[in-house]
Every structure is written in C-alpha cells, then in structure tokens.
Specification:
Number of strands: 12
Strand order of the largest sheet: 2-1-3-4-5
Shape: elongated
Distance between the termini: 83 Å
Number of helices: 45
Largest sheet: 5 strands, parallel
Length: 851
C-alpha cells in the first residue's frame, strides 16, 4: 500500500518532514519517486501506483496548478477504484469549502501541527487498507426466509415500524452481513454506509457516546475533552437525548449504526439496559430502523413482547447447498481450481457458518485444498471453539505475541496506537498484523483491530500472551505519551483518546487530562484482571474506585463491582468490609444482586469451614440462577468435600455443560467421578476417560497441576500407588503451595500404611494454610486427615474424640467417619481397649445421637 502526498511546493518544509517520517517505501513524493522531469504524465504515473491519496489543504495548495492536476487525476483514479481512501490535512485556516466538490463531500479535514503525528495517521490509513484486503469473502447469497420476515416488519406504517433491529446467532453466522445487505436492498437511498460500535459487558451510555462521537465528529483534542466531560455530567434522560441526536444526524448522511453487543445491551435477566430503553423513546419519531444490534443472546419472548418497536431475528446455519455455492464462487474469485467432490467435502466441514468460509479460504490460499482435506483438524478446532488447541498449533513471533497481548489488554486498538505501544517500524507491525489475519487471529472493525471472537477465551489460558504488571504499565505509558504530540487545537483521533484513557486508569501518574476521562467500566475491567490473576488487594482497590463512581455504571456493573470486591474481601478475611459489601447488595432489588449476596455469604461460610451453612446459602443462590457456572461449581466442590458425590455430580455436570473447556470446571467434574469410583458407585469409564483427556488438554500447562492431581487420584483408585506418587510429586513441584496435592499425597501414603509420610504432608498443609492466611474450607479436610491418621495408628479413642470435637466437618461427614471408625475397630478388635470395643459393638450406622 502506497500514499500519494499532494501539496504545494511552498509548504515543502512541513511535507518534507512528513515524508522523512514515512520513508521511501510507503509514499509517492515528488522529490523522491517522481520521474526526473515533473509533468502531467509523472503525476499520473505516480498516482497509478497509489491506493491512498493525501491532500494537504492550504492557501498555497488551492492556488497551485500542479496540485489542481493532481486533484483531477486523483478523482479519475478514485472512480476507477485505484484510490481506496482519501485523507485531508489542514496546514492553515483555509476552509474546506475551498476544496473541489468531490473532496467537500468527504468533509473530514484534520488539523495537525506535528509532522510526526501527521505521518503516523498516514501510516494508520495504509495499515488499515492493507488489513481490509484480508477481511474475508464479499459474497452474499441472501437468506430468503429471514429477509422476508424483516421486510414484513419494516414495511409497517411509520408509527409501528421497528426502530431497533436485533440479529441474533452464534459468532460467524452472518448477522452483520444479514442486516447490512438486507437494509441496503430494501432502502438503497436511506442506507449506504454501515458503521459499527461495540458495547461490552458492564458498559453504559458514556462508552456508547464516545464511540459514536468518534464516527460522527472531527474535533480537536480540547473539543473532544469538553464534549466527553459535558456528557458525563448530564442526567440520564439528557444523555439518551444526546445519543439520539447523534444517531439521527448520522442517519441524515445515510449512515446506519450497528451495535456489536459483547454483553452490554441486556441485563442479567434479559431486559434491555435502561439507557437503551430511554434511547428507544428518543428515537420514536423515526419512521425507519435507526439502530441494529448483533447479539449471541436472544431476549426472552415476554421481554420482546413488552418492549415494542423492535424486531428480533435468530439466524440459523446456512443450508449445505448455499455453503457449496459460496465456497465455489469464492474459490473461483481467487482462481483456485477444485472438483465438485472437494467442495462438497469442504461444505460438510463448515457446518453452515459463513465465518468458517473465511478460515477455509485463507487456509487453502496458504496451504492448498488437498492439505485442508487431508488434515482438517485446524478447522475442526476453530469451528468447535477449541481455541487452546487451535492456538497451540501456531508458532507466533515475538512481535505477534506482543500484539496479541496488547489487544487482549485493550480489546480494540487502532494502528496508530499499536505502532506507538510496540515502538516498532510501521511496516514490521503491518506484516505482523497481516500474518495474524491470515491465521484468523485478528480482525479489523471500523478503525479498530481486535482479537477474533472464537479464540478470546483460549488466549486467556495461553501463557505466551501473559504479561506482568510492569510490561502493562510500560505499554500504558507509551499509549498515554501519544497525547503529547498533539496541540490543543489539533484534531486528535478519538480512538487514541479512548485507548490512552484506559491506559491512564492503570498508570501511576497519568496525565490529568486523561484521568478526568477515566470511566468506572475501565476500573472494573482492571479489577477483574487482577482478580483472575489472584491479586486480591489491587482488585479491591479498583473495585472500590469503580463503585465510588457507581452512578455512571449500569446496575449489573454495580453488582459486579460488589461481587469482585466481596470475593476478594472474603479471601483476605476482611470482616468489616464484607459486612459493608453485603449491606450495599441489599439495596438492590434485582435477582442477580440477591444471588451474589447469597453466594458471598456461602463462600465466606465455606472459607470458615461452616459447610452446612455454606450449602444453604449456595442453594439459595442456585435457586435464583440454576444455570450459573460459579454457583454449580461451588456446590459440586462443597459436596465433594462431604463425600456426597451423587449430589456433586448434578452440579458438576451443569457447570460442565456451560463451560466445557474451563479447567476449574473440568477439575471438579473429574474429582466428582473419581470420588464416586472410590466409593464403589457406578461410573461411566468412557466418560471419565474423556474428562481426563480434556483436563490434560486444558489443565496441564506449565505452572498448572489440575491434570496431574486428578491423574494421581485416578491411579490411586486403580491401586497403582507408585505411579500415583510419581504424578503427585510432579504436581507439587509445579504448584508447591497447592493444598489439594498434599491431601492426595497423604492419601497415597496412608494407602501404603506410611503414617510418618502422611504426617509430614499434614505438617506441610498446616504451614501452607497458615501462610495463606485463609483457606478454601480445607480446615475440614485437615481434620478429616488427622482422624484417618489416628485410625491408621490404631489410636481409636483419639479418632473418636477428634470427630466429635471437629469444628469444620459437616454432620453428614461426621456420621461417615464414625461408621468407618466402628468398622476399623470391628476388623481389628485386639488393637482397641474394652471401652472402644463396646462402643463399636453398640454403634448404629448413620446415628449421631449416641455420640
């Protein structure tokens, strides 16, 4: 991709500095690349080599005859499709009305005082043009039934025409394409440009407004700052009115806004977020659709009925015949030969998802059609969302790993910011992004690059993309430093301001200009990252800061801030803070707030070893949301500790159905099945093998011992004690402070009647739990281990007293241990004194009243 720099020779001092920043490989610049003699033919030849036309607006350029010839030639090449994009930079106060009519229609004139910043924006445009070449297939064969349903809805009288259009379905099913192509077909005069914004989980009206401002305004840094600040101070109804005004203005320019819903449009119970409902009221005067939503989650039917003036369409996979046609036409477009049998085989692999076609075509371009059909495992991993498997097969360069890590941190970044953050040459960054696009890891949306949805979860479990806090702060400082290159009256891309604001939320001493623009959703995102990384203190700090700005957060986001804050407080045993958080939760009437309250109470009770209380609280939380994976996992874990494996299995299965690749879920499911096996209960061995295989895939990374612990547990059940001991020792080498591994090793030692080794593990456990300052309810497991050691040493009276006096063992487990003790004494009566023999003889199984 190459840029043509159109300018007056009288402005050469500024333009030369821009050219020097860009280098000879990216531009056509008269002093460097034109033919020796400057004439009309030299201009045309140079323009024929360009994709980007850059015009420097000034009194000098408007009056130049050479520049006028360049403008005429650029218009001609734009009509031919050779010029893909136009940038206009103002060097003085010359009005855009002095431009030729075709340039006035573009109506985006940027004022930038710095040659370096100007060069950066040209680099950004070149990178985006490069990236857009790899944006997948451009074919659309239509969805006749779905289009018919939409057409029937929007031909209604203006007062009942739907304003919000919701296209719902899995990633890659063609939701955006369906909306844009259908609306272009039905209303070619109303809609010719479709712009996209993203609404993430726990984001609200301010995030939406800032993105719309990006798309609709060309403003200086100072004007942008004042606009954002002014919006933040508006009452909610005024914010909805302002967003409505922006959307209506965009509609006047034939622009239709599509919101990519990443969890921010609907509440936990499926209602439209209040600010979007207010916006719907503001747009009621429109006689045609004004806003589109791309979603994976369908609003419940009752909510849809009550809402009015909305249209919801769930998109199903395309038919095999349609997929065959799309694949065939796309392969022909790229000049790839194929047979009918090959296309049919490919279509069967795609499962009706247009998104998978992009992957297939890119794979075929790189490796050939025979390679794909010989080994389709990459496509299978991709389409089944087995991102960990898919990513594991790709060898990334250092800069590619850094790019992925940055995009994981900031989610959506423009080229300008990526170049600055990496401090690399733009050509190097462009090549890295192109390769990531070829592997379907990165996509371009509007002016933002982002991680492809199918691999986002897998990235979180890939150590290659993990970075420490110092690296993140360094990247954040580099992004914040971008601001320094602009004057107050310069045009500053809002994409840079948004990225720098998120960076400022993490920075130690951020610029005051950016600190004012930090949103509570930024703080909440960082708090979640700290919680996932096990950094409870920083998590609490950011939660408290976010909750301090709660009036600027949606209700669900306020509850989420309290949830993370509360979980961290429980783990750190901050009793007063826990009480404060629970009191705050009681002020909310929503079911999600009540569920979180019960969950926190249950979590704290479990941490204190009060398993019976914990069970009651978790059950209350489960009744409110029986499909929540966290509640199901906690109940399964609690029942496993009580040896109630059949109860545990119900909840472990429910959690596994929701999150089948989560190593924590797989771990508790494996623990449940192995526990059942140990108690002589029936277990499907094929299923157990499958779960163990999955746990090895997702829970056997360096620094992780999920698989090794359960592998040792399984080998112990199969009486392979030496192999079990080998696996558990490797687990302890990887995670030397993981209590579960020591419990399993103590069990292995007891099975070999090695009480001294078991007691050594008991001492290690006591030390680890004391140093941690808290536990996951392991106190009860420690008491149980002490009882088993007493029984193995034939200290039966001590064992009975220990059971009766235990503070952290549930009543149901006490019953089982007493039954086990009675059986031990009955099996070896000579090892017990007379009183304990008599006790064992009179013991009634399952009866606590006699103890």
């Amino acid at each position: 991709m190459t840029a043509f720099l159109s300018h007056s020779s009288k402005d050469k001092a500024f333009i030369r500095q821009v050219a020097e920043q860009l280098g000879k490989t990216q531009i056509e610049y008269d002093e460097w690349t034109f033919e020796y003699k400057l004439n009309v033919q030299a201009i045309h030849n140079a323009l024929n080599r360009c994709n980007l036309f850059v015009f420097f607006l000034s009194q000098n350029s408007i009056a130049s005859s050479y520049v006028n010839e360049e403008l005429r030639a650029a218009l001609e090449n734009r009509g031919k499709g050779l010029i893909k994009r136009v940038l206009i930079f103002a060097l003085d106060q010359t009005s855009h009305k002095a431009l030729p009519g075709w340039l006035q229609d573009i109506n985006i004139v940027r004022k930038i005082s710095s040659p370096k910043m100007c060069a950066r924006q040209i680099q950004v445009a070149l990178m985006e043009l490069e990236a857009q070449e790899d944006q997948g297939i451009g074919l659309y064969l239509g969805r006749e039934t779905d289009e018919s349903d939409l057409r029937k809805a929007i031909i209604a009288p203006p007062e009942s025409t739907p304003i919000y259009l919701h296209a719902v379905g899995h990633y890659g099913i063609g939701r955006r394409t369906f909306l844009s192509k259908s609306l272009s077909k039905f209303f070619p005069r109303l809609y010719n440009t479709f712009v996209e914004v993203t609404l993430g989980q726990f984001e609200g009206p301010e995030e939406l407004y800032r993105q719309l401002f990006t798309l609709s305004e060309v403003a200086s840094a100072d004007e942008t700052y004042n606009a954002f600040l002014s919006f933040s101070k508006m009452p909610a109804i005024n914010q909805a009115a302002e967003i409505g005004r922006v959307i209506r203005n965009m509609a006047l320019h034939n622009e239709f806004v599509i919101v990519i819903d990443n969890g921010g449009a609907l509440t936990d119970d499926g209602e439209l977020q209040p600010f979007l409902a207010d916006l719907l009221d503001q747009l009621k005067s429109a006689g045609q659709p004004s806003l589109g939503f791309i979603q994976t989650r369908m609003m419940p039917f009752s909510r849809r009925q009550n809402l009015g003036r909305t249209f919801h369409q769930y998109l199903k996979p395309l038919s095999t015949e349609t997929i065959i046609e799309l694949v065939s036409l796309t392969l022909k477009e790229f000049g790839i030969s194929f047979s009918e049998a090959q296309v049919s085989e490919i279509a069967n692999l795609i499962d009706g998802h247009p998104y998978n076609i992009r992957f297939v075509i890119q794979f075929i371009l790189n490796f050939g059609i025979d390679s794909l059909l010989t080994d389709p495992s990459d496509l299978i991993d991709w389409k089944n969302r087995r991102a960990v498997d898919f990513l594991r097969k790709i060898k990334f360069s250092a800069i590619e790993e850094d790019l992925m890590a940055i995009l994981s941190e900031y989610q959506y970044l423009d080229s300008h910011t990526l170049i600055a953050a990496l401090d690399e040459d733009s050509i190097v960054v462009t090549q890295a992004i192109k390769r990531l696009q070829e592997h379907c890891c990165v996509e371009l949306r509007e002016h933002y690059f982002h991680i492809s949805p199918p691999i986002r979860d897998g990235m979180r479990r890939d150590d290659r993309f993990h970075r420490d806090d110092s690296w993140k702060q360094q990247i954040g400082q580099a992004i914040c430093a971008l601001i320094d290159g602009y004057e107050d009256d310069d045009h500053m891309p809002v994409t840079i301001i948004q990225s720098a604001t998120l960076a400022a939320a993490r920075a130690v001493n951020p610029p005051a200009f950016l600190s004012t623009l930090v949103l509570p959703s930024h703080l909440l995102r960082i708090a979640k990252e700290y919680y996932d990384a096990g950094k409870r203190g920083p998590c609490m700090e950011f939660c408290e800061r976010a909750y301090g700005m709660k009036n600027r957060l949606p209700i669900d986001a306020q509850v989420e801030a309290l949830r993370l804050w509360g979980l961290s407080a429980v783990r750190l045993k901050k009793r007063q803070m826990i009480d404060h958080i629970l009191e705050q939760l009681k002020q909310y009437a929503s079911p999600i707030a009540k569920r979180v309250g019960f969950f926190l109470e249950g979590f704290e009770a479990r941490r204190r070893g009060q398993l019976d209380i914990a069970e009651g609280k978790f059950k209350e939380a489960w009744k409110l949301t029986p499909s929540n994976e966290s509640v199901n996992r906690e109940l399964a874990s609690l029942y496993c500790r009580q040896r109630r494996y059949q109860d545990a299995e119900v909840h472990a299965r429910a959690a596994y159905k929701i999150a089948p690749t989560n190593p924590f879920i797989l771990d508790i499911f494996a623990d449940t099945l192995l526990g059942k096996l140990g108690m002589g209960l029936r277990v499907d061995q094929k299923e157990l093998s499958h779960i163990m295989d999955q746990l090895k895939i997702y829970g056997d990374a360096p620094g992780s011992s999920f698989f090794l612990v359960r592998d040792a547990q399984q080998k112990l059940k199969n009486k392979n004690r030496q192999e079990a001991l080998s696996s558990i020792n490797r687990a302890i080498e990887r995670t030397p402070n993981l209590p579960d591994a020591y419990f399993i090793r103590a069990e292995i030692h007891l099975a070999a009647s090695d009480c001294e080794a078991a007691e050594a593990d008991l001492k290690a456990l006591t030390r680890i739990l004391a140093e941690a300052g808290s536990s996951e309810g392991e106190e009860g497991a420690v008491e149980e281990l002490e009882v088993r050691i007493f029984m193995e040493r034939k200290r039966f009276r001590d064992a009975r007293n220990h059971i009766n006096n235990a503070k952290h063992i549930s009543n149901s487990l006490k019953v089982r241990l007493l039954d086990q003790l009675a059986r031990h004494i009955s099996a070896t009566p000579r090892e017990a004194d007379t009183e304990m023999q008599e006790w064992a003889k009179n013991h009634k199984t399952g009866d606590m009243r006699r103890h």
